[in-house]
Amino acid sequence: MYHPQKYSIPDERMKPFIDPVEIWDFINQAKPEKQQVRDIIQKSLDKNRLTLQETALLVQTTDPELIEEIKEGAHQLKQRIYGERIVLFAPLYVGNLCVNNCSYCGFRAGNTQQKRSTLTLDDLAAQVKVLEDAGQKRLILVYGEHPRYNPEFIAETVRTVYGVKSGNGEIRRVNINAAPLDIDGFRTVHEAKIGTYQIFQETYHEETYGKVHLGGMKRDFNWRLTALDRAQEAGIDDVGIGALLGLYDWRFEVLGLVRHVNHFEAVYNVGPHTISFPRIQNASNLNIDRSHLVSDADFTKLVAILRLAVPYTGMILTAREPSAVRDEVLKFGVSQIDGGTNIQIKGYTDMAENQDLEKEQFQINDNRPLNEIMDELIGRGLIPSFCTSCYRMGRTGEHFMEFSVPGFIKRFCQPNAMLTLAEYLEDYAPPATKEKGYQLIEKKLTEFDDPQFKQRLIERLALIKQGKRDLYF
Ligand code: SAM
Ligand code: SF4
Q: Does residue 360 register a pLDDT over 80?
């Protein structure tokens, strides 16, 4: 499967790096003992990355008392390092044409019941306007895999999104989730100023990968596995990895994700920006072996394990998950969630009451409007953030900086979260949310002990009340 020519590989970097025998050996040899598990949790709390062996010991832990300690460890790590912020974004589906046949996906070519369409640039702008009018500032554009969605098309859609301004609204960061490109293709989308390029390996187990990808370009495991290396080569250093949980044994996928992070650290000296761990949801004509579906108990445990294993990587949770699961894993350091989500093509302008599986990729479990989610987060004392400051100041790898630079969160993330929240409260929140939101901001202001900095922040908050926008540190 590995063809150096085809990958236009400049050197050894893009060689596939997943060895299933090695991963299973780590899992099978792990016989966790109480003290060992506690030492591993402590290692992570001391701000160290875990090895594959250590991660294997955690995934093999079944003692309920120790599982609680793993979750408590993840919670403590989040509290100590990341504090009480949560970044919000919305997905925007651009088109559902697809040449592939992924057995889990409603968009797959063989699903003749799927209603196919692609947004025109005007349709796209109309969706963006609705999202801006709800208060969104960060989007991820999602595409099927099709010759029509070539790099120039993707770049054009990204530029279109950045160009839409409605009232005080604007989209300040456009991420993409799209099929793997070649290096030139990645250069083209990089020039359109994408934020993160996100792609999920789906499963790190090559044999299973072959069974669920039944046709089309996505069949090539290594072309996908090395996509982010080509992205790096093209200058995109802000990338997101993920595994679609439910295709194969979740323990293998967790180690696969950690192995992917190791590859990044070894070659580029920095890990991926974010990790996603979507669980398979119902989809139109879903056609999968259900033996690996992940229970809520295993899911919450694995999120806590990932937090401990790669403590400086951003973690994304989506509206695939019901709110009860979301609430639990938010405590383990999930850094981004989507809110006000609709994944139908033209879904934000058509806003149907009911989901229609024939028009979307899969079913979501949380379709509450953005304000309901904002209101709930504020009520729980979390600061919803639309911050895009690092990206726009050229500070890439912000999650890593949050983790490793002392005072970074106090100096940048927390105040920027408060400023973007104030913008939201002024422009989009109903009165009750506005009142609660300002109470939260007041409370958070008391946590700043540098009087000069606090004064600067108070001044900026006052400017926002007077109508100034897009202020950040
Ligand atoms: N077509 C591109 C690709 O496959 O890379 C873009 C991404 S696809 C539209 C977004 C992601 O949705 C996939 O990578 C997959 O992990 C996830 N997905 C597909 N079917 C799903 C399902 N039934 N439930 C949950 N997630 C699903
Ligand atoms: Fe197409 Fe992506 Fe769905 Fe696969 S997951 S069928 S490539 S849209």
A: no
